[in-house]
Amino acid sequence: MSIPEEKQQQDTVSAPPRLKKVSSVKKWLKLLLQSKTGTFGLFIVIFVFLTAVFAPWIAPHDPTENNLAQMLQPPFWAEGGSMEHILGTDNLGRDMFSRILYGAQVSLLVGITAVLIAGTIGLAAGIIAGYYGGFIDNLIMRFVDAFLAIPSILLTLVILGIVGPGMFTLILVLGITNWVNYARIVRGEVLSLKERDFVTAASLMGVNDRKIMYRHLVPNVFSSFIVIATLSVATTIISEAALSFLGMGIQPPQISWGGMLSSGRDYLADSWWVATFPGLAITITTLGIIFLGDWLRDVLDPKTNMNRKGR
Which of 15, 176, 183, 214 could form a disulfide with 126 if both were Cys (CB 3.0 to 4.6 A apart)? Predict the structure, then answer.
């Protein structure tokens, strides 16, 4: 065989992985575009993320600057409003539009960071409990039962009442109190996976437990983990807003949508915009994350795919 023919065969052999990668990207884009809710959710998530990142450049005013001469100004389309404050001002004359932009930073930071903490704890606990079983499994699952016996919001309030409110404390508490759902679902999948041939073969070949869990179990449960984590970001943002509304979350001068709701509830009768716009921001953001999470669940969940094919 000549050298050019060998080179041509090598190029032919090396081509499929590249084509497979491109086709995989096209497949995901096609699935996303086929889902109107998934596309809409992704658009909202990207929009909120970009506004949070570029808030210092987009915001027309300092969000913490008080101006009592312009307090409770309505939005620009209402009587008495102006383009200087397009969404009006609050009870201290602070620009609502700027505060909503900066509030997105706090909501996304708390939501994503708390989910990372909870997901890491739950993923590790679920894999260890499912893989080893026995006493370790019983011990971890009793902890899970203890956490499930107490409402998470109540447990969070008790801990924050003892430790004190604040952003770092809130993130840590939300992460510690919301790991149980990850642990339960991951454990259930690991109980099935550890009986598969590839795990048994790796164990017989002398691969240590840490490598088996990292190389074989984590990749196989990661799709379910991503779906749970995505949906949990929305619930965590709502939890942060609720705790800030109660005065146990983000504290002034830091800006949060829940804190804006709390300060605006006394002005709903005459100045509806002070509480309405933060509420809309929370609703739209969580809906976008939920829409995206539902799409991920439909794509990554094998049972959902089987049901869809059976129709």
Answer: 183
pLDDT above 90 as % of the chain: 29
16 vs 286 pLDDT, higher one: 286
Please tell me the distance from the alpha carbon of residue 238 to that of residue 258, in angstroms, as a whole number: 8
CATH number at 35-59+72-310: 1.10.3720.10
CA 165, chain centre distance (Å): 22
Domain range summary for the chain, segments of one domain joined by +: 35-59+72-310
CB of 179 within 8 A of CB of 157? no
Contacts of 180 (CB under 8 A, 6+ apart): 122, 144, 147, 148
Residues 74-95: pLDDT tens digits? 999 988 888 889 999 988 889 9
